[in-house]
Design brief:
Keywords: Cell membrane, Membrane, Transmembrane, Transmembrane helix. With 517 residues, this protein is α/β, with parallel strands linked by helices. Among the domains are: 107 residues, Ubiquitin-like (UB roll) (Roll), CATH 3.10.20.90; 181 residues. It is built from 15 helices and seven strands. The chain has a five-stranded mixed β-sheet, with helices on one face. A two-stranded antiparallel ribbon has the order 6-7. Strand 2 and strand 3 form a beta hairpin. The chain is elongated and about 115 Å long. The termini are far apart.
């Protein structure tokens, strides 16, 4: 038999019999599709509106098929509340939001009507009458994945190992003759490194592998600190850093990863290791060492791009100015987003003779950027820590330390102004703010009975520098400085460098300590 599936009222053409052609245009009837629809083994010939979305006419089609089936013996009516879908005979499901005309289904092509496949639905914990709210909850929340569960398990292992390491250190301090703590820590570190390497070797569960490897650094540092005889002190801390850095460097060389963490540990530990060594060997005063290291951070910030390039295997740029403003800036002949040397290379210049491919050059450049960020972050940590150690309210040379520290902060602000890497700018501004705050905080918590008015004034000066740093960070954009401002910052940087020399003269106490021994 042949039946006609009527379109719903929204899609049915209006009755225009009572209207004339003069005032209302005739509305054309939608085209019709004629063909056979199979429901199971039963075939029904129907006429279906081809210009109406399939979903809009589906209910009328179900009623039509049920009406036709009622005349047949043994027919089971199709539930009208069930979702159905139309398919081609090859199993391809037609998009219910589109019409047969849009899908290009020709007349006479048989179609198959089947119940829709039950898709995974979201059931909110609290039922709400708004489906949009339930969808928002589904979009903004997600179940924990197996990979994430493994990472959380690795973090838990690291926390337990850290607690065990702290307990072993405590036991070592109370009873050094007990079973050597460093042996237990070495076993823990070796087991975690082996587990992390074994898991990461197959290329799966990389996050869990990284978590275990990072956790292994804790017992490794504990083993180095407790394996040397004598009470725990600066020397033990430096040996712990040495072992951790060695592990990270080996991992970086073996896997070409861990660039940021290994470079950060290396840059932070070299200067602090030198200070610890001088303190250990010659017994020099801690404030003197801290003051010298505070000044050393300034030229190292200037040399950070070159050091990063050397670590990545690239030839460092030849910086013409202390601020680097004369080399690394935009070339007028290049797009606005391009940063390259202003001075072009000569034809005979081979800056990267050992680079084997453009991919290798991009890889090294990416490592150089990562290493530069790590070096700056380590130097800012060093600057904050050494400033805290160098500031003492009762020191007769406090005014010199604060003046040089203030000029150094201004010079670092100039570096942040001409730097284009947002993460480096954030590290420099953060170091400036924390260092200025450390000066004020150290004077505030000083146990000196009387603080000279000069010290108080210089403390307020440091607080003003913090405010200046905040304002300039908000209004200053990298590279948007006039040539006179750049030149002023250059001389400010040179002044800060030259005032570092009195620090070294003040550190002549090093030579006195050596001669006395």
């Amino acid at each position: 038999m042949t039946e006609t599936a009527k379109a719903p009222e929204a899609s049915a053409p209006p009755d225009t019999s009572g209207q004339t052609d003069t005032n209302v245009a005739m509305v054309e009837m939608p085209p019709w599709w004629r063909g056979a629809i199979f429901v199971g083994e039963r075939q029904t010939d129907v006429v279906f509106p081809a210009a109406v979305p399939i979903r809009a006419a589906m209910q009328a089609l179900i009623k039509l098929l049920n009406k036709d089936g009622a005349t047949r013996q043994g027919y089971i009516p199709m539930p009208e509340t069930t979702a159905y879908e139309l398919q081609q005979v090859n199993g391809i499901t037609l998009d219910a939001s589109r019409s047969l005309l849009e899908l290009g289904v020709a007349d006479g092509v048989p179609l198959v009507l089947k119940p829709g496949v039950a898709k995974e639905t979201f059931k909110p914990v609290t039922e709400d009458r708004s489906a949009s709210l339930a969808k928002q909850v589904k979009d903004e929340t997600s179940e924990i994945k197996p990979e994430q569960a493994l990472v959380f398990g690795g973090i838990g292992i690291g926390i337990l190992v850290a607690a065990a390491s702290a307990l072993l250190i405590r036991t070592h301090l109370l009873e050094p003759t007990w079973w050597p703590a460093w042996v237990i820590c070495i076993v823990l570190a070796a087991a975690m490194l082996a587990a992390g390497w074994g898991i990461g070797r197959h290329g799966r569960h990389g996050d869990l592998s990284d978590t275990l490897i990072l956790g292994a650094l804790i017992p490794a540092a504990t083993a180095a600190a407790t394996g040397v005889p004598g009470p725990l002190g600066a020397a033990h801390a430096w040996l712990a850093w040495l072992l951790v850095t060695a592990i990270l460097v080996v991992l970086r060389v073996a896997t070409d990863r861990w660039w940021w963490l290994s470079t950060f540990a290396l840059a932070l530990g070299v200067s602090l290791g030198v200070g610890v060594g001088v303190r250990w060997l010659f017994g020099v005063s801690g404030p003197i060492i801290a003051a010298c290291l505070m000044w050393v951070a300034l030229p190292l910030v200037l040399a950070a791009p070159g050091l990063a390039n050397r670590l990545a295997g690239l030839r460092p740029p030849n910086l013409e100015l202390p601020t680097g403003a004369g080399v690394w800036e935009r070339n007028p002949d290049e797009p606005d987003e391009t940063v390259s040397p202003v001075v072009p290379a000569t034809p005979n210049d081979q800056p990267y003779p050992d680079v084997v491919s453009p991919e290798d050059l991009r890889r090294r450049n990416r490592h150089s950027i990562t290493a530069h960020r790590a070096i700056i972050a380590a130097l800012m940590v060093q600057l904050v820590a050494t400033t805290w150690g160098a500031i003492h309210a009762g020191s007769p040379r406090l005014w010199m330390i604060e003046v040089v520290a203030g000029l150094g902060l201004v010079s670092l602000l100039g570096r942040a102004w001409i730097t284009r890497d947002a993460k480096v700018v954030a590290a420099l501004i953060g170091g400036i703010l924390l260092t200025g705050a450390v000066v004020v905080a150290k004077l505030a918590v000083s146990d000196a009975q009387t603080v000279p008015a000069t010290v108080t004034a210089l403390g307020w000066l440091a607080a003003a520098l913090v405010g200046i740093g905040v304002l300039t960070a908000l209004v200053g954009l990298p590279g948007d400085l006039s040539p006179p401002t750049r030149r002023a910052l250059q001389y400010m940087y040179l002044l800060a460098m030259s005032l570092g020399f009195p620090f070294l003269l003040w550190g002549i106490g090093l030579l006195t300590a050596v001669r006395s021994r």
